[in-house]
Amino acid sequence: MIIILITALVFATSLTAAWITLLTMIDREDWLSAVYNKMHSNLTTIKKLQKKDSEKQRKLAEFNGFAASVMRIFYGGSSEKDIEKLLNKNEALQAGDVNGVGVFDMPGYVLLRKIDSISRGNINKKVLIKSMELYGRKHAENKAKQIMARMLSYTIIGVSLTLTIGALFIGMGNTVVGAGILGIGPVLVLVLIFSMYDGLRVKANNRREAIVRQFPNMISKLTLLITSGMIVERAWKETAYSQSTEIYIEMQKTSDELDNLVSPEAAYGGFIKRCGTKETTKLASAIMQNLSKGNAEIGRLLKEMAKEAWYERRHIAKRDSEIANSKLLIPTMMMFIAILMMIMVPIAINFMGTF
Questions:
Q1: Is pLDDT above 70 for 64?
Q2: 3-class DSSP assignment, residue 78
Q3: How far apart are alpha carbons 179 and 60 in whole angstroms?
C-alpha cells in the first residue's frame, strides 16, 4: 500500500507541476483565443436573453389591464440588467482586462499550440466539424480550441486532484476509501471529459434532427413564394424571417451574407455546411445551379423537394412513434403486472381463508 501511496503522490505532483508549468507558458495568442471565446459566449447569451424578452413581450401583448399586470409578474422582469452586465464584461475584455477569462482552460490552449499532434489529431478534427455545424465557419476554429483546451486542461488537473485526495485518505489510515478514490476517481474524470466531447456530438445531432423536422414547412413556404413569381433571393429572405427556429436562423445568416454582397456560391455553401443535412444540401445546390434559369425551373424542383420532404416527414413520424411504443412497452408491462397482483392477491387470500 505504501508503494501505491508513493506512486499516486508522485504522479499527482508531476501532473500538477506540468499544469503550473503550462500556465507560465501562456502567450498572447492563447489569451486572444480565450478572450474571443468568452466574448462570443457572452454575445450568444445576450441573444438568448433578448429572444426571451421579445417572446415575453409577445405573450404579454395578448393581455390587457389587470390580467396584463398579473401575467407580467408571472413571466418575470426583463433581462436588461443581465444584458448590460454582459456588455460591460465584453467592453472590459476588449480593453484588455482578462480577469473574466477562466484560467483553468489556459494550459489546454498552450498544449494545442505547442503539440501539433494534438491540434491535427482526429479528435480535434471531429470537434472542429461539429463546431462548424453549431457555430458556423467564422467561430468554429476558436470554439473547437476552447472545447479541446478544456478537455486537456481538466483532464490534467482532475486526475491530479483525485490522486491527491485518494493518497491523503490512505495517509490518514482510511485505506478502503483512499483506494476506491484512486481507482474510480481518474476513471470518473475521464468519463466527464468524454461527456464534454460526446455532448457536442449529441447537440449537433439534435440540431440536425430539428432542421430535418422543420424542413417540410420551410420548403413549402419557399416554394409557394417562388412559384407565385417572387425572385429566389427575396423569397428566401421572406421565408427566413417568418420564424426563428434552427433552419430559419441559418437561412437568416445566409440572407444577411447575400445582403452584404457575399457571392451566392459562398453564402449557400455556408448554409450547407452549417446545416449538415441531405435535404438542405439538395435545396441549396439546386438554387445555386438554377440562379440563371429563372423561377420556372427552380419552382418545379422545389415542388418535387416539398413532396419528398413531406413523405419523409411522415416516415420519420411513423418511425418515432414505433420507437416511442417500444420504450413504453416495459412500463406498460410493469403496470399490468402491478394491477394483476392487486387483483389476484386478495382473491388468493380469500381462497386460502376458506380452508
A1: yes
A2: coil
A3: 58
Report the run of H or E that residue 120 belongs to, with start and end. none
Q: Which of 238, 228, 235 is nearest to 296 (CA)?
A: 228
- Is the model more confident about 265 or about 76? 265
CA angle 250, 256, 261 (to 5 degrees): 130
Q: What CA–CA distance (Å, rounded) separates 311 from 282?
A: 16
Q: Where are the alpha helices (DSSP H) in the chain?
A: 2-24, 28-60, 65-75, 80-94, 106-114, 116-119, 122-171, 175-227, 232-240, 246-259, 264-275, 278-289, 295-353
Q: What is the distance between the alpha carbons of residues 232 and 213, in angstroms, rounded to a whole number?
A: 23
Q: What does the mean pLDDT of the chain come to? A: 83
d(CA 185, CA 176): 13
The number of CA neighbours under 13 Å toward the Cβ of 208 is 19
Per-residue pLDDT reduced to its tens digit, 119-142:
888 888 888 888 888 887 778 888
In this prediction the pTM is: 0.73
Question: How large a percentage of the chain has pLDDT more than 90?
Answer: 8
Angle between helices 175-227 and 232-240 in degrees, nearest 10? 140
Report whether 281 contacts 272 (CB < 8 A).
yes
Helix (H, G, I), strand (E, B) or coil at 50: helix
Q: Cα separations (Å) of 330 from 189, 323, 327, 339, 342?
A: 33, 12, 7, 14, 18
The answer to whether 268 touches 288, Cβ cutoff 8 Å, is: yes
Pairwise CA distance, residues 70 & 65, whole Å:
9
Q: How confident is the model at residue 294 (pLDDT cuts 50, 70, 90)?
A: low
Question: Dmax over Cα atoms in the chain, in whole Å?
Answer: 93
